[in-house]
Design brief:
Spore Coat Polysaccharide Biosynthesis Protein SpsA, Chain A, 8 helices, Nucleotide-diphospho-sugar transferase domain-containing protein, 5-stranded mixed β-sheet
């Protein structure tokens, strides 16, 4: 159970922001869930022409807020086996959001990845963390990230430093060389920046994936992170239509406030949806039961 401070009732709603190019099916699911749990909050999608009609969010075009992102592109050095455009946008989005919140005069906001399903009211949880530089999941994953306007400005300045300061850039290149030498896919990404920020700039960070809390924000549903797993994903226990995970050691049930469907798990995001009454649709329950029954029947 999430402990709610009564003072939160007098605080204003925290806006939710998504940045996404393209109109992939999971985007609409993420926006829908964010809306179901946060109907009083502003929900913004910074996107492109292909997703300008997606419901549950106010759409704004990325191109209108890309001046500083284009400046960053001039200094960006691609150090990853992943696609250039993908990694660049993951970093540019913070500059895009920074311009957007300046225009809209937004003081605090929560940025969500477009493959995250939210299962909580943002004001109830995040009002206690407004003094932090940002929130993070799993040490360095910015899939559910609270920022203030001041801390985001500072973080964008740090991103520019990472690619212009010779000391920082040498460190990034060495890190990528380790990936190459070990033949490990991946490389330098925005998670790298969030990781190093915590040693280079500030430790005023709130970790959301702490198994000691009475709630948990998932960094990657494909990873155990100390919870029971089933078929390669965290095993979910549904209690009153809210997902819980059970810890491997103590067997404690902990509420999941968000699930992150990273990588190929995006294909299964629909099976974790709630309807507008915040209930699991009957067809999903039948589908999941049938799926696991078939797996058990296999020789």
């Amino acid at each position: 159970m999430i402990t709610t401070n009564k003072a939160h009732c007098s605080q204003k709603e925290i806006p939710l922001i998504f940045v996404h190019k393209g109109n992939t099916p999971y985007l609409s699911y993420a926006l829908m869930h964010a809306y179901f749990f946060n109907k009083e909050a502003d929900i913004f999608l910074l996107g492109d022409k292909s997703n300008c009609n997606v419901p549950y969010a106010t759409h704004n075009f990325i191109d209108q807020y890309s001046a500083s992102a284009k400046k960053f592109e001039k200094v960006y050095e691609h150090l990853s086996s992943n696609h250039y455009e993908y990694e660049l946008l993951c970093l540019q989005r913070w500059f895009i959001i920074n311009e957007f919140i300046k225009e809209k005069q937004i003081e605090h906001f929560l940025c969500l990845d477009s493959d995250v399903l939210l299962y909580c009211n943002v004001k109830d949880v995040f009002s206690d963390f407004l003094s932090c530089d940002f929130t993070i999941c799993g040490g360095y994953t910015p899939n559910v990230t609270l920022f203030s306007n001041k801390s985001l400005e500072k973080f964008c300045g740090y991103l520019m430093d990472l690619y212009t300061n010779p000391v920082y850039l040498t460190r990034l290149r060495k890190c990528y060389r380790d990936f190459v030498d070990s033949q490990t896919p991946g490389g330098i990404c925005d998670m790298t920046a969030f990781y190093h920020y915590q040693t280079d700039v500030s430790v005023n960070i709130k970790e959301l994936s702490d198994i000691q809390n009475d709630y948990y924000f998932d960094a990657n549903i494909n990873e155990s992170d100390g919870f029971e797993t089933e078929n390669g994903l965290k095993k979910i226990y549904w209690l009153n239509n809210i997902p819980y995970g059970k810890t491997e050691k103590e067997g404690t049930l902990i509420r999941f406030c968000a699930l992150h469907f990273q990588g190929t798990s995006k294909r299964q995001i629909k099976d974790y949806l709630l309807n507008k009454r915040l209930q699991r649709p009957h067809w999903i329950c039948l589908k999941v039961k049938s799926f696991f029954r078939r797996r058990k029947d296999r020789p």
